Amino acid sequence: MLRKILAATLSLALLVGLSACGATDNASSSGAGQSAGGLTVATLNQLDAWPAYAAMKDDVADKYGISYEMKLYKAGFQLVEDSALEKWQIGDVGAVPALLGVLNRHLSVVGIAADESDANALMVKAKSPLLKEESNGVLGSADAVRGKAIYTTQASSAHRLVAAYLKKLDLTEADVNLQYASQADCLAALGDGRADIVSLWAPNTYEAEEIAGGAKTLAKGSDLGVTNYMVYVVDSAWAKNNKDAIARFLATVGHEAGAFEEVKDADLVSFFKDYAKADLDEKRIADERKSHQLFTVEEQLALMSDGDLQKSLDDVATFFLQINRFADSNYGQLTKMNFGITDEYLKAAQKLEEKAS
């Protein structure tokens, strides 16, 4: 019983304790598309923010009758934490912090921004001997990895990747020297030799390749069967009175997702520089395209009805159980809530699309 109480307390505290993980100055706003109605869309500095950004530039948002401003965060946990302060109304965030938001911040999952499974990777120095071994379908081996220093951002998609990799090698966290750090500190630890393995997400993975001596991928999400969705979340109480605004937003970004294949690389370079505050050349843009899949409204509805999203969030909840961040009662609560998933707003968005066509 004491273990369950402690785990429940930890899960509640996790949003606060880790919200600043990754950087200081966690949020900034984009003045473009300022909404007279005060609607704010919060995102991270990733490709899945493109549809919302593009819709303000090419008048698709106007077509669907919605106006908003965008707020940029460097850490998903800070984004979720700020929902309690009403700093945004629609959030685009990773499944790991989103699930904590469902449990502790009364958020609902109303859409799927992207599949970014392969934007998460375990990386090592280019000359690491781990790259020369293979076991159970992945690079490395239990004997070679045991005792190694692995740096990751705690209770994040990167941490989840570490857990999946260790499981693949029949190891546990106790078998390695696991260190929790911000993504910037993970990069620094790989560069100065403190870390043997680091777990990163893009665009930090690109920075790793530029460190002295270079870095290579040991394993990525698809290698380990880890699906990581970026999801759209809203405050459940706010959503009840703002169904139309949510539906219009989802129709807007769904339209942009459907047109993504036609987007020029130069436009994405500008997006990353102007909004995401990242300097990516066209080679990196090609990597971004490969590691992210954006979804139309129809595709999002299919992922919900087929159970793909539910399975992925169930896997995240199981991960939290494994690292003692959730108690059994937390898991039971989430399953009863269907992990906060609702297709109500996407169905309304689909009707808006039909009217607009």
Strand order of the largest sheet: 1-3-2-4-13-5-14
Bin the strand percentage: 15-25%
The secondary-structure class comes to alpha/beta
- Distance from first to last alpha carbon: 56 Å
The biggest beta sheet is recorded as: 7 strands, mixed
Assigned CATH superfamily of the largest domain:
Periplasmic binding protein-like II
How would you summarize the topology of this molecule?
Elements: H1 2-18, E1 27-30, E2 40-44, H2 50-57, H3 60-63, E3 69-73, H4 76-81, E4 90-94, H5 95-104, E5 107-115, E6 120-125, E7 134-135, E8 138-139, H6 142-145, E9 149-152, H7 157-168, E10 177-180, H8 183-192, E11 197-201, H9 204-209, E12 215-220, E13 229-235, H10 236-240, H11 243-258, H12 265-274, H13 282-291, E14 293-294, H14 297-305, H15 308-322, H16 328-336, H17 344-356
Parallel strand pairs: 2-3, 2-4, 9-10, 9-11
Antiparallel strand pairs: 1-3, 4-13, 5-13, 5-14, 6-11, 6-12, 7-8
Helix pairs in contact: 1-5, 2-11, 11-17, 14-17, 15-16
